Amino acid sequence: MNYLQLSLIALVSIIHIYILYLEMALWTTKKGIKAFELKSKEFAEETKVMAANQGLYNGFLAAGLIWSIISEKTDVALFFLCCVFVAGIYGAFSTKNKRILYIQSIPAGLGILTLFLQL
């Protein structure tokens, strides 16, 4: 993998580590409530276990991407980038929050594109 590919994979990994932190540690704080546009502090409290579970899954995505960087395995990178891409599309349309598309799917899509085109 070249520098551009590794940089995009690393970027997507860092994004997912940050999402993990938001969902697992900051969900019920002002920052978490604002980031996820939650309706209230009470709602955040009621859903914090679910959010922590989501955060854990984002951590698994980041771990897979980091593994692909360390091992320099393009097929592993493609798998995890595709998972992120699909999850971002689903999240954007199921929650009607298009920011998810820009934060998750576009960086992952660019990573996928560079791997396919060998940029």
Question: What do you see in this structure?
Answer:
The chain is an all-alpha fold. It has one domain. The protein contains six helices and no strands. The protein has helices spanning 3-25, 30-35, 41-46, 48-71, 74-95, 99-117.
**SSE pattern, N- to C-terminal:** HHHHHH
Radius of gyration: 15 Å
State the helical fraction.
Answer: over 70%
What is the residue-mean pLDDT, rounded to a whole number? Answer: 96
Please report the distance between the alpha carbons of the first and last residues. Answer: 9 Å
Number of separate structural domains = 1
Residue windows where pLDDT falls under 50 for at least 5 positions: none
The chain-level structural class is mainly alpha
Total beta-strand segments: 0
Could you give a short account of the major beta sheet? none
Counting H and I runs of at least 4 residues, what is the number of helices?
6
